[in-house]
Amino acid sequence: MADEPDNQTDPNETPAAQAPEPEAPATETPEAQAPEQEAPVAEAPEEPAPEQEVPATETPEVPAPEQEAPATETPEVQAVVPPEPAEQLSPKERRRRKRAAHAGEARPPRSAEERHAERLAERKDKAVRRRTRRLAERAKAVERRATAPAREPLAPVHAPVEGTRKVRQGIVVSDKADKTITVRIDTARRHRRYEKIVRSSSTLHAHDENNEAHEGDVVRVIESRPLSRLKRWKLVDVLERAR
Length: 243
Hints:
Largest sheet: 5 strands, mixed, barrel
Distance between the termini: 208 Å
Mean pLDDT: 76
Order of helices and strands: HHHHHHHEEEEE
Strand order of the largest sheet: 1-2-3-5-4
Helix content: 40-55%
């Protein structure tokens, strides 16, 4: 009898002990596997760790010079680019962009001093733009003159050789004025249609420096520069004296 209870307790305990046994391995297996997996995982990174650290240190060294090169280039580009759009924009285009950027809101009230300061600032800005444009135009003109070919010497306005002057022959009509004679020029020509001889005469004033010619003399005169209000001729010689 003493053995029976022991035997009874054993079968009763076995199911109780067996019941947790399937649960224990379920709960213990992950705990047991976790350290087992952690051990190889911890060992695996220890070996490649130095391999991964080497590229980690190399990667920042490679882009470092690439980032420094554009850093040095950007200021040069910024120094050249900003002035170009300001020079290319015309006054009309600047006003149009200024109107487009305006939101339409009313400006706050300003005092007379503030308005005066704004006008001064605007004038200063215009003066700077005007000075820049003029300097650019002067530089272009200097460059154009430097590259232009040498100019050929201009021909003289007045030819050095004197042209042919007119010569007329006539009769002295008057010699009353001092150093001046009045000469009548008689002309005869044939009419183009009727073929009749048409005679005409005209008078002119000639300069006689020594008063050589007298009324009734046949003289020869030559064209000259204007000597007075009426005189445009000079006496050449006396061909025939009056009888």
